[in-house]
Amino acid sequence: QVQLVESGGGLVQAGGSLRLSCAASGGTITTSDMRWYRQAPGKEREFVAFISWVGGGKSYADSVKGRFTISRDNAKNTVYLQMNSLKPEDTAIYYCNAVRIGLWGQGTQVTVSS
Questions:
Q1: Residues whose CB falls within 8 Å of the CB of residue 108, separated by 6 or more in sequence, listed in order
Q2: Average pLDDT over every residue of 3-27
Q3: pLDDT for position 1
Q4: How far apart are CA 68 and CA 80, in angstroms?
Q5: According to the model, what pLDDT value does residue 56 have?
Q6: For 13, what's the count of Cα atoms within 13 Å in the CB-facing half-sphere?
Q7: Rg of the chain's alpha carbons, rounded to an integer?
Q8: Is the pLDDT of residue 55 over 90?
Q9: Which phi and psi (to 5°) does residue 74 adopt?
Q10: SS3 of the chain: helix, strand, coil, percent, to 5
Q11: For position 64, what pLDDT does the model report?
């Protein structure tokens, strides 16, 4: 049974950086498109970034474009989200999603202080 585990969240000041990881265990995600989502308190879950499993295709929400970078290391069965120039409005729980198998991780909290 495949599981996704996010890590790398924490408390950071505005302008700082964090790198989130989404590691898969019990199976492979190397043939799955992957997405990052986030959910802020009192708001709906929203799309953040996408990476295809082949061809290197990527896309981003307008709110993070130019600041966040999604990548993957298939040898490590892991997807990353590098977040730079963080803003207080980036505060949320961040989730990774394996599109092909409809699997979600448990989330990791990111808090950006002003």
A1: 6, 7, 8, 9, 20, 93, 94
A2: 97
A3: 87
A4: 10
A5: 82
A6: 0
A7: 13
A8: no
A9: -65, -30
A10: 5, 50, 45
A11: 98
